[in-house]
Specification:
The protein has 222 residues and is an alpha/beta fold. It contains nine helices and six strands; from the N terminus they run ααβαβααββαβαβαα. The protein has a four-stranded parallel β-sheet. A two-stranded antiparallel sheet has the order 1-4. The longest helix is centred in the N-terminal third of the chain and has 16 residues. The chain is globular.
């Protein structure tokens, strides 16, 4: 399988691409895309990696799986294509927390490519989904692949910020070397969690920038 992925990631993950589980996963994904309406578009499945090369990663945000609404997902967790209005509820809550934390007004669109291009890896635990069926591609191998991604980042880089929002993201915590990296956790920004007090007020965006600044790294313009 010739995965179209940015070169520095291809070097980091080349062993993973040759493993039996990954070949089985790709066969599953190809069949799903042939038989069902799946998201994101095939050319966008690895968008997070292509917008944020391994060498440029400063912050990692972990999502669950792509938005299942056609026209929303484009390969970056929590991000939507520029035309999408209104914003999905989770993304709206993210922007609300940024406004509260940093005093920044809501952006004109919900595309987070601007974050990705600054070194924020917007990684879903599962990279594909059937339209209208959240979690439909769980347990097929993507989790093993994204575990490998987290492990490579933890082992081969220093002073990363990992933002783990919600139970699924927190499951990745054992893969991260806490002596080398900063981890911030909170509830998920979805209304189910946020409206119960587990999201708002986490101040993860200012905390991330304070950490980056303390290490002499450029802050993220959220």
């Amino acid at each position: 399988m010739n995965v179209k992925i940015e070169n520095s990631w291809k070097q980091q993950l080349k062993d993973e691409f040759n493993k039996a589980y990954f070949s089985k996963l790709i066969d599953f994904v190809k069949q799903e895309y042939k038989e069902n309406h799946c998201l994101p578009r095939g050319s966008e499945i690895f968008n997070a990696f292509n917008h944020t090369p391994f060498d440029d990663v400063k912050v990692v945000i972990l999502g669950q799986d792509p938005y299942p609404t056609p026209g929303h997902a484009h390969g970056l967790c929590f991000s939507v294509q520029e035309h999408v209005k209104p914003f999905p509820a989770s993304l709206k809550n993210i922007f609300q927390e940024i406004k509260s934390d940093l005093g920044t007004e809501f952006p004109e669109n919900g595309s987070l490519i601007r974050w990705a291009d600054q070194g924020v890896l917007l990684l879903n635990a599962v990279l594909t989904v059937r339209a209208g069926q959240p979690r439909s591609h769980q347990g097929k191998g993507w989790e093993k692949f994204t575990n490998a991604v987290i492990s490579k980042l933890s082992d081969n880089k220093e002073n990363l910020v990992f933002l783990l929002w919600g139970g699924d993201a927190k499951k990745k915590m054992p893969l991260i070397n806490k002596a080398k990296h900063q981890i911030f956790t909170s509830g998920h920004p979805s209304p189910l969690s946020a409206n119960r007090g587990y999201w708002f007020g986490n101040k993860h965006f200012s905390k991330t920038n304070n950490f980056l600044q303390s290490k002499g790294l450029k802050e993220i313009v959220w």
